[in-house]
């Protein structure tokens, strides 16, 4: 199917893009890689009257690896996968990207687009949550930053105002004594997460001294599992700890069932994947 | 209507399109390059894969306007005159197709893989073709066809 008609703009500056967003309000949508937006437009689930393409805004592309890692919102999955310095600094991100869609999806789709879209089954939100992500946003009032923890609000809904643009994502590096993993149960056709769990651990003298765990695919949005984190903190990093922390962890979560997986099944899978992600994160601890 | 210009299979093209025109529609309906197929409405099947500036993309999920100024290669642009591309030869030699509907997309995805990785393992071939669905072959012979092409291209390079 073909999208309904729209006007197309490709501004070369951020302030121009924001001005267009202000001018057209609800009628307008930003276009990044188009691999969430165009499929919904083809099915006429979205019918924006105006598309504002971000491709010509060159400062939105690129990766800087310093004390933290900063990624321009318009950087494609493939560009991230091909960046050896980034993959070395954040193997968990490289491994996650391999699981996203397929090669052609990764050649077009962007990290910023995925976070702004906030698909409840997207992979990156969970990983950005456990890597303590900070998002940089440009709007009419200038630049602001927000923690990933405060960014994902509801299904397909973020803390972005309609006239704001996500410009960059900054993540913690996984350092010595730390490990991180993302595991998902992928839908066999779309490869979206039926359930996905990301885990980050820091282990000092055999004890968990910091941890973050997040789930995606299960409910309306990706979210931290603070109950699991509380079970892990200051405990000996042993296999039985990970099994105990996973058991019953999904009991209080709001989980959605759909035609692909019932609520009960997803709840069971969340626990399985919490356990596996913790074990995998512990197995990936970097030498200190 | 918006004016666009791009190069398709080595030939310059200029024309006017509605902004909502998909790249696949431009190729099939405006340029009559019907080797690029449409197999789904959900960006999942890969029958429409072409190269945009050398990188494989699903032409059903790219606007024609997003290809303005770019170079596009379709399945029709792969053979050199009467000489088949090693992948085309490989799909023929190894029976990599039955109905053939998925084949143009399979070949364009595989061509992108071989550009970046001239000697892929079977696992790497399968990973690279995850975005291409085939209802007929069961994929085994498709993997063989890609391996055949990789070998041909490597031995051609050595001589
Ligand atoms: C077949 C298929 C399989 C897929 N499988 C997976 C998968 O397994 N896992 C997964 O996580 N994802 C998957 N995806 C989604 C893919 O990763 C998308 O590319 C991604 O979610 C959206 O990125 P995009 O750049 O394409 O954004 P677009 O589609 O261009 O935009 C998405 C939304 O975000 C808004 N937006 C985009 N950029 C910005 C910005 N900088 N600031 C503010 N708003 C912005 C747009 O207005 C739009 O509403 C799949 C997609 C397809 C088609
Ligand atoms: S037609 Fe199915 S992915 Fe493009
Ligand atoms: S040969 Fe028929 S779909 Fe692949």
TrEMBL record, chain A:
Superkingdom of origin: Bacteria
- SUPFAM superfamilies from the entry? CO dehydrogenase flavoprotein C-terminal domain-like, FAD-binding/transporter-associated domain-like
Cited Pfam families: CO_deh_flav_C (PF03450), FAD_binding_5 (PF00941)
Asked if the record carries the keyword Flavoprotein, the reply is yes
Keywords in UniProt for this one?
A: FAD, Flavoprotein, Oxidoreductase
Q: What SMART domains does UniProt report for this protein, alphabetically? A: CO_deh_flav_C
Which residue range or ranges hold the FAD-binding PCMH-type domain? 1-176
Indicate what this protein is called per its UniProt record.
Xanthine dehydrogenase family protein subunit M
Automatic annotation (TrEMBL), chain B:
- In terms of domain of life, where is this protein from? Bacteria
Name one matching Pfam family. Fer2_2
Does the record bear Iron-sulfur in its keywords? yes
- Keyword vocabulary terms for this entry: 2Fe-2S, Iron, Iron-sulfur, Metal-binding, Oxidoreductase
Give the matching InterPro entries. Answer: 2Fe-2S-bd (IPR002888), 2Fe-2S-bd_dom_sf (IPR036884), 2Fe-2S_ferredoxin-like_sf (IPR036010), 2Fe-2S_ferredoxin-type (IPR001041), Beta-grasp_dom_sf (IPR012675), Diverse_Oxidoreductases (IPR051452)
Would the keyword Protein transport turn up in this protein's UniProt record? no
**Protein name, please?**
(2Fe-2S)-binding protein
Q: Report the residue ranges that make up the 2Fe-2S ferredoxin-type domain in this protein.
A: 2-78
